[in-house]
Amino acid sequence: MNFQLSEEHLMIQRAARDFAQNECLPGVIERDEKQQFPREQIMKLAELGFLGMMVDPKYGGSGLDTISYVLAMEEISKVDASVSVCMSVNNSLVCYGLEAYGSEEQKQKYLTPLAHGLKDGELYTGAFLLSEPEAGSDATSQRTTAEDKGDYYLLNGTKNWITNGGTASVYLVIAQTNPELGPKGINVLIVEKNWPGVVVAAKENKLGIRASDTHTILFNDVKVPKENRIGEDGFGFKFAMKTLAGGRIGIASQALGIASGAYELALAYSKTRKAFGTEIANHQVIAFKLADMATKIEASRLLCLRAAFEKDQMKDYTLSSSMAKVFASETAMWTTTEAVQIHGGYGFVKEYHVERLMRDAKITQIYEGTSEVQRIVISRTILK
Ligand code: CAA
Q1: What mean pLDDT is reported for the chain?
Q2: Please, what CATH class does the domain formed by 237-382 belong to?
Q3: How many whole angstroms separate alpha carbon 130 and alpha carbon 242?
Q4: What homologous superfamily is domain 126-234 in, according to CATH?
Q5: Ligand 1, from 204, 209, 241: best to mutate by most atoms within 8 Å of Cβ?
Q6: Domain ranges of the chain
Q7: Where is the signal peptide (predicted)?
Q8: What are phi and psi of 38, to 5 degrees?
Q9: For this structure, is 368 an active site residue?
């Protein structure tokens, strides 16, 4: 057992912190208000090698471990969770899925530019298309169909709440091919956004992570070549579950960052703001809130790092990633709400950042598996 981060880990953490402070903090309030996608920041993330952090350098990645990813996600999410969700989806849902289960041709063609985050000098990212109007938590109820037409699939359907939906170049689409086989009839297909029949529909007007790019995507008779199916026929649901286990480490780390960002602001504020003749941190009612925040955040961090460690050790991390996600996201919601409370009236206005962090925290309890879904995964595992 060793709780020490390596020199390399500390270097990544510093780089992410500098990036967050220098590139994300300026304009974060305005981007949130205007729902303006942080393109410039994401381009810089690509230059830093943070869009394919864990991908093998032979496919254009940075070859780092999952611990580094958690550290970077925490630092960036402290400041701008709209930037970090784009980073998380590209790293853990798209690049990981392709690297772990894609064919050599698929890796050469798609993974390499996705891990760079750039192609021909332009932003090149991916999105993960599982959720549908009537298939959120109940993910096996896929209505999108991928009809087997011999040498291609004919794709039809609607996908909802897709992160990077309008800006991504490549979609990993989960769709039903053989409904009579249930989850075993589901496939995952690589679809290029600019193919005929792909429609980027409405952009969502969201409570939080407002600068991230979330769309409905429609498929109308899209022809997908057979070689763009990932894995064997019927592998799509298992692919989604396995990939989401890693994605949940990313979102847990995002929640951790949102919580620690709010905690740091509340701590600093409570040491300067005076009430009843002293700094408010000297009132036990505030000091105890800070103590509980610090404790829950540290527990979240350890859960995230443990899940990352298990992934790096090639162990089964399904349980640990669900535990990290449910605990960190609930910590983020509680901590940010208390941070607003500590700031009082100032917490309710945009300039103090904590109201945005509170709005951003909510989604971490919903996407990549709600808190209820995490409890399904955890309880099924421990009761098995
Ligand atoms: N690894 C491998 N296989 C798995 C698995 C896992 N972790 N979990 C389930 N499976 C397999 C099961 O073994 C089963 O296969 P067999 O019949 O061969 O045994 C098959 O998948 C079906 O599994 P279940 O019977 O357990 O399915 P279920 O209907 O009870 O659902 C669930 C399980 C955990 C609730 C799942 O549906 C789930 O995770 N739902 C949430 C979906 C989700 O996270 N959506 C997020 C959308 S993506 C997103 O948010 C991205 C973004 O843009 C930010």
Answers
A1: 98
A2: mainly alpha
A3: 13
A4: Butyryl-CoA Dehydrogenase, subunit A, domain 2 (2.40.110.10)
A5: 241
A6: 7-123, 126-234, 237-382
A7: none
A8: -80, 60
A9: yes
Q: Are strands 214-225 and 152-163 parallel, antiparallel or unpaired?
A: antiparallel
Q: Over range 252-260, report the average pLDDT.
A: 99
| pLDDT at residue number 60 | 96
- Among residues of the chain, what percentage have pLDDT more than 70? 100
Which atom of ligand 1 lies nearest, measured to the CA of 245? 7
State pLDDT tens for residues 176-195.
999 999 999 999 999 999 99
Give the C-alpha separation, 219 to 198, whole Å.
5
Both structure tokens of 202: 């409405």
Check if 376 has its Cβ closer than 6 Å to any atom of ligand 1.
yes
Q: Are 323 and 378 in contact (CB under 8 A)?
A: yes
Q: What is the CATH number of domain 7-123?
A: 1.10.540.10
Mutate to test the pocket of ligand 1, among 238, 321, 326 (most ligand atoms within 8 A of CB): 238
Give me the residue label for tokens 């000297």.
282
- The rounded distance, in Å, linking the Cα atoms of 8 and 183 is 41
